[in-house]
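Reviewers asked in the last cycle whether our approach scales beyond single polypeptides. To address this, we selected a multi-component target totalling 311 residues and predicted its structure end to end. The input consisted of the following lines:
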Amino acid sequence: MEKEEKLRCPRCGSINIIEDSDTGELVCAECGLVISVGIASNMKDWRAFDSDEYVKRAHTGAPISPVRPSFGLDTGIIGQDSASKKSVRKLRRTKRHVSDSKEKTIEPALMKIKEIADALNIPEETVEDAARLYRMAAHKGLVKGRSMDAMVAAVVYAACRRTEVPRTLENVASFFNLKEKDVGRSFRFLFRKLGIKIPPPKAERYAYQICTKLNLPEEVAAQATRILKIAKELGATMGREPVGVAAAAVYMACNEMGIHRTQRELAQAAEVTEVTVRNRYKELLEKVRPIWLKQRKEGEKRAALAEAGGR
DNA sequence: TAAGATAAGAGGGACAT
DNA sequence: ATGTCAGTCTTATCTTA
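The resulting structure, written as structure tokens, was:
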């Protein structure tokens, strides 16, 4: 059935490597790692599955460099890589490969992926990943007998997670008029069966997204990112929904910078409840704020010194 | 009106059976 | 496969400043 190469997946060691004839990419059929080219380089950390584990096994160093993340959503930042045209063609050209009927049945799903991607402003890179995941699922017979919408929703959501595009289950589910929990169920089913580990979403991504929604200055996002970094190091985000933590961090950054935003506004932007924002905020106040303020003070001091010295 | 507090209920993960 | 357990988040309601 599957093509086999003499290659081994560097992540899971499987020799079950599929070649995507369109892109020439080598993809591990077991875990989905793209071996030769593509998004693999963007996906750094795979080990953890849920939020708890993520913090427990938090990679120590490696500060998440806040280098202009492309946070998407209605801002013009998405079209960075101008490969859109190429990848659309890539998606269309799926029939050329593999003669069997499976590829044919996949086509409508790919179209749906395109549709939802347009609606939710999802970048091409993510669309391709979703298509790739759907193919893997189809080849393993995981789609048969299940709602195609739910499966498409699941792979789109998964691709968003893998490529760190901040979209919630709710975002994806509502496009298909599905319930969040149903998409979630499909998502978990699919990726348990595929054996693919998908890293938890990063709170920093949501922080930027929230700031964008509320038209907050970049400095707020930068401060929120620092808060989140400290929170992570302290384990204060353990087991919490990243988007909720992000909302609280942004709220705290606003407060500290004299920008008035209510908890309700943050809650709405993050699509969580006020209670969640409150609870996360409370935790951040206790655990993170002291350290954060100290670091800020030190940072300012350094900046002042540097400026004085530079003159 | 914003924010804090509390309680009941749901859904899901870990773990054991 | 099914059940229990601990923990989170949501909804609803009430209180406080």
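The first helix of chain A runs from residue 51 to 56. We regard this as preliminary and will revisit it once experimental data from Aim 1 are available.
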